[in-house]
Amino acid sequence: xxxxxxxxxxxxxxxxxxxxxxxxxxxxxxxxxxxxxxxxxxxxxxxxxxxxxxxxxxxxxxxxxxxxxxxxxxxxxxxxxxxxxxxxxxxxxxxxxxxxxxxxxxxxxxxxxxxxxxxxxxxxxxxxxxxxxxxxxxxxxxxxxxxxxxxxxxxxxxxxxxxxxxxxxxxxxxxxxxxxxxxxxxxxxxxxxxxxxxxxxxxxxxxxxxxxxxxxxxxxxxxxxxxxxxxxxxxxxxxxxxxxxxxxxxxxxxxxxxxxxxxxxxxxxxxx
Length: 272
Hints:
single chain; mainly alpha
C-alpha cells in the first residue's frame, strides 16, 4: 500500500512538472514527500537500499504521470487554454496556505516581518525571468555536439526548478524557449532529445540537493518565504486574462474552484 501511495504521489509530481506555473517541488511539499526526497538524494550513500527504493517509487510514479498526461495537457492547452490555465492557477493558489504555514511554523515569530523580504525577492526573481523569457538562444533543434551540450546545460538549469519548490519546471522550459518541443519530444519519445536533458537533470539534482537541504535546516522560514514568493510570482506570467465569452468565464471560474479544492484536499489527506 505504501508503494502505491508513493507511486501516486510521484505521478502527481510528474503531472505538475508538465504545467507552466505549477511546481513539482511545491507539489512534493503539499504531498509531504519533499523533505524525504531531498534527504534521500543528499544522503544517498548512507542507506543506499532504503534511499534507492524510495527514489525509485517516486521516480516511476513521476515517469508514469508525465507519459500518461503529456498528450492530454498538450491537447487541453491548445483547445481549451483559458479553462485549463484557470484550473492550474487554482491548483497553485490552493497550495499557498501549505507553504505559508510551513514558513510561519518553522521560524521565529518575532522575525516574521523581516522574512517577508525573502518573499519579495522570490516574487521579483520570477517576474524578471518572465520578462526576459525570449533572450536565450534556443539550440534545441540543432545537431551534433552543440545539441548535446545545450540540452545537458538546459537539464542542469531545469533541475534547479525541479528541486527548488515554487519555480515551475515547465515555466523554466518556457524561459529557455523549449516547452513546446519538449512536450512533443515526450509524446513521441525522442530519445536523442530527452537523454541529454535527463543526464543534465540528474547531475543538477545531485549537485544542488545538499545545498537546499542545508538551507531548509538552517534557515527554514526564510527558505519557505522565498519559495512562497516564487509561487505567487509564477501566477502573474501564466495568467491568461479573462475569456471573451460569458460561458467561458463561468467555466473558467468553476474549474478554478475545482483545482483549488482538489489541491486543498490532497494537502490535508496525503501530506502525512
